[in-house]
Design goal:
This protein is an alpha+beta fold and 99 residues long. Helices cover 42% and strands 21% of the residues. The chain contains five helices and three strands; from the N terminus they run ββααβααα. α4 runs antiparallel to α5.
Length: 99
């Protein structure tokens, strides 16, 4: 059984890149050697700012997809471990329209 990792990279331009792997050391080295994909190759060096492990790939995929759909603010809260901010950002914001 392989352990699977979901991780967020902070690229040299300040952007975040979320992905999963079953070999974290190799993938980080590949990213920083410009072999990790076009997005990160143009934004090296990268730093791992979030890392979570899972016993199954399917569990990792669920979190990866969820994070990819999040706003930058929500990703930043996750990186900071600020669960109350994540909960606040998860609430739908409704604006009252007045006539």
């Amino acid at each position: 059984m392989h352990i699977h990792f979901v991780y967020i990279l902070k690229c040299n331009d300040g952007s975040f890149y979320t992905v999963l792997t079953n070999n974290i050391e190799q993938r980080i080295a590949e990213h920083n050697n410009k072999q990790g994909g076009e997005y990160t190759a143009l934004r090296t060096p990268v730093d791992v700012v979030f890392l979570e492990s899972f016993p199954s790939k399917s569990e990792a995929i669920i979190l990866e997809r969820q994070i990819k759909g999040w706003s930058r603010k929500k990703k930043q809260a996750l990186i900071e471990g600020n669960w109350s901010k994540i909960a606040h950002l998860a609430k739908k914001q409704f604006h009252k329209h007045t006539s």
